[in-house]
Amino acid sequence: MTKFTLTFLTAISLFAASGDEVDSAMQALRQAMLRSDGAALARLFGERLMYSHSDGRLETRAEAVAAASKGKRSEFTFSNAKTEIYGDVALVRCDVALKSVNQPAGLQMNVLHVWRKSDGRWQLVGRQSTRLGK
Fold this sequence. Notes:
This protein is α+β, with helices and mostly antiparallel strands and 134 residues long. It contains 3 helices and 6 strands, in the order ααββαββββ. It is globular and about 40 Å long.
């Protein structure tokens, strides 16, 4: 096997592993949001998180953890996810469906999640959402 082939195969396997890790982080985020699990969210959110809501509000890590810990969600799903990985940064764009006590009719959004791998784990460092429809 040539050196190029080995390098190429190694790069593909690293990308696949990183993609699986990011998918796992997204599922951990989903579960933490459904359970309003502040401790899990604090582990998933990076120290300098910029969490932007579809209405323009921007929250810090502490504010986002506090707000999400209070929520009572009956539905929180991701669909149509597309992941791009650039070294230790991953972008995940997906549609999010959310239902809660405050939003019983539901909310549909397109969300860009920005993840960064630090100390061997992926943490959310940025989030930007846009409402879809009414």
